[in-house]
Amino acid sequence: MSIETAPNPSAKRDHGGNLSAAIKTYGGQRDTWIDLSTGINPAPYPVQGISHSDWSALPDRTEQEALLQAARIFWNVPDEAAILAAPGASALIAAIPALAEPAQVEITPPTYNEHAAAFRARGWHVKETGLCPARVLVHPNNPDGRLWAPQDASAPLTVIDESFCDVCPEHSLIAQSAIKGRVILKSFGKFWGLAGLRLGFAIGDSDLIMRLAEWQGPWAVSGPALRIGERALRDLAWAETTRVRLAQDAQRLDQLICSKGGALVGGTDLFRLYEVDDSTYWQDRLAQAHIWSRVFPYSKTYLRLGLPAQNDWSRLEAAL
Question: What percent of the chain has pLDDT over 90?
C-alpha cells in the first residue's frame, strides 16, 4: 500500500553543513571545526587563473558554450539530449516540478529531502510507492548509496539526481537523458569540492531543458563558474586520481568506524552511512572535539560521515 504525504509548510528541512548551529552549541570558531556533515570532496579542484574581467564582466556566451561542450564530453551525453548550466543543482530542483501540472510524484525514502519539498511547494502530492505521473531517483541515493536500474525510470516525468555519481561514472544513467520526459541532474559542488561556486547541470529532454533555460534567464552562471567549471571538466587526469583517493579514504573511514562499534549501511565514496547504537550520542561525542557529523530525524541509529581532509584524520581518530 502506498503512503501519501500531504504538504506540511512548517516541516523543517534538515541538512548537513549547518555548522553555525554546532558552533552555537559547542563553541569554537569555524576554522577550528572539521565539518563531516556533508558529502563534499575535502580536497577540492584547484582554482587558478581567474582574471579581473571574470568578476567584472557579464558572463560571455562563448564561455557558456565552452562549458556546455566540456560537460557533454565529460559525461558522454547523447547528441539528442540538451544541457543547461545553472547556479547549483538546488536551483534546478526547485524549478523542475513546474515542468508538469501538479499531480502525484513517487519519491522513495530515505533520500535527499529537497526533492519532496520542491514538489510539495508546487502543489504535488508525494507518495513513497506506487505508479505516478512523476518520479525522482537519487542515484546513487543519499544517504544509503542505493543505485537504481534503467527500468526504474519509467514515469512520464522522471528526474534522476546524479549529484554523487561522479565517483562511480560506470553506473550513470546518462544514456537515458535523451528520452522524452527525462531530466538528469549533475552537481559540480560534490565531486569537485567547490560547493560555494554554485554550479549544476540539467541534462535531458530538449523541450524540458529549453523551458528551464527560459525560466532562469541569460546570465544565471557567473563568469568565474564558467571558467573554473570548463577547466575542471576537461581535466580527466585529476578526475581519475581523485576517484582513486576517495575510494581509499572511504575504505579507511569504514575500517575506523567499524573498529569502534559502527556497522556500514552504505553510502558513496564521498560519504558513508553507519548504524550505531545511539547516533545522537555519537554526534555529541564528536562535536565535543569540534567534529560535526550528520544524524537524521527519522532514525536513532543512522550516522553519516563525509571524508576528512588528509590532515584531519588524526583528530577524528583521537575523538573516537
Answer: 90
* DSSP reduced 3-state for 244: helix
pTM, to two decimals: 0.93
Instruction: Please say whether the beta carbons of 5 and 127 come within 8 A.
Output: yes
Count of Cβ atoms closer than 10 Å to residue 54 Cβ? 18
Q: Is the pLDDT of residue 177 over 50?
A: yes
For residue 38, give the nearest of 308, 278, 256, 311 by alpha carbon: 308
* Model confidence at 13: pLDDT above 80: no
Who contacts 312 (Cβ-Cβ below 8 Å, separation ≥6)? 34, 42
C-beta separation of 131 from 224 below 8 A: no
What nine digits make up the cell of 168? 562511480
- Mean pLDDT in residue range 220-243: 97
Taking the C-alpha atoms of residue 74 and residue 201, their distance in angstroms, rounded to an integer, is 12
pLDDT in tens, 81-95: 999 999 999 999 999
Residue 306, burial from CB neighbour count under 10 angstroms (0-12, 13-18, 19+): buried
| CA atoms within a 13 Å half-sphere pointing along the CA-CB vector of 257 | 30
Q: What is the torsional sign of CA 186, 191, 192, 197?
A: positive
Can you give the pLDDT at residue 8? 44
First to last CA, the chain: 42
> Mean pLDDT of all residues in the chain?
94
* pLDDT above 50: residue 9: no
What amino acid occupies position 224?
Answer: P
Beta-strand pair 182-187/157-161? parallel
- All three cell numbers of 285: 561525542
Nearest to 176 by CA among 151, 147, 201: 151
Contact between residue 186 and residue 201 where contact means Cβ atoms under 8 Å apart: yes
Q: Report how far residue 288's alpha carbon sits from residue 18's, in angstroms, rounded to the nearest whole number.
A: 16
Q: Return d(Cα 274, Cα 305) in angstroms, integer.
A: 8
Alpha-carbon span 313 to 307, nearest angstrom: 9
Strand partners, 4: 127
